[in-house]
Design a protein that fits this description.
It is built from 14 helices and 10 strands. It is an alpha/beta fold and about 325 residues long.
Amino acid sequence: MLRIGKHTLPGNVLLAPMAGITDLPFRRLCLEHGAALAATEMLTSNPDLWRTRKSHSRTQSAGIGLHVIQLAGNDAQTIADAAARVVDMGADIVDLNMGCPAKKVCKRAAGSALMKEPETVARILRAVVNNVSVPVTLKTRTGWSPEVRNGVEIARIAEDCGVAAITMHGRTRACRFNGNAEYDTIGEVKHSVSIPVIANGDIDSAEKAKKVLQHTGADAIMLGRASQGSPWLFSSINAALAEQHYVAPTRLEKLAIVRRHLIELHQFYGEVPGIKIARKHIACYLEDLGEAVTLKRLFYGLECTQAQTDFIDAMIDGGEGENSAIAKIRQRWLLAA
């Protein structure tokens, strides 16, 4: 089992924090389906910006397992103070984001932009570790660019500063999410430090999970975009790693999960924002279910909570056949429009 500081996790397949995706309903769902850990969406280290509903929602615990809050910023004292505050709010682990490649984050010299400044990285990590009593973890990338892969240097700094574990995405900041993740650097990191190393990037199946763990020697893996629309992927990978037989959920069982997720999104956000946020989640489920593009277009056109719920109910009532589900939804919503 993976150990982070004083905490022993129930497994070694983790959910990556993703802005706009890993909200409380989604984290809870992934944890129930086998994720060993699920951090909140990235929260700015500036507490003056925490007064919004969005920021407040990002600090809430899923009520299952450990509560991990991820922070981002570029000033050591500000992040250290923010870390102490989120610990007071119930965080069991503080995760520091030095891997986000988004321009709006990097232009503030935060996220993966910090990989260009190892001395700043050291100041931030040391300040946070010394200011909280809970384990501090770091999420970063293999380097600033393919020509500057300094992931090993950053990992050694993290270990020296007392960081409890490091997650490394197999791309550089310059690569953003383009091309394929590379795992050689992650393997080098694993052989260079003694703290747990978690591999991240392009892991979308049990087979890929096994290959990445074998190639890198990492202690755990972290799933990101592949988990969208497929929270049961955690159970699948857990079973494969344990060499256990896995029984995949049926289409109707998946639809029942989709319906529950949809309802919890509406309850969590309220009707107006919930409708918008549900669209991106349900679209991913429809892709996983192999449904026609028509269904996604229909769902995007629904503008009330009841319509979205009825949409999923129509798919459930439509039986196992795709055509019958499409026919029923078309009759109810397309023609009604």
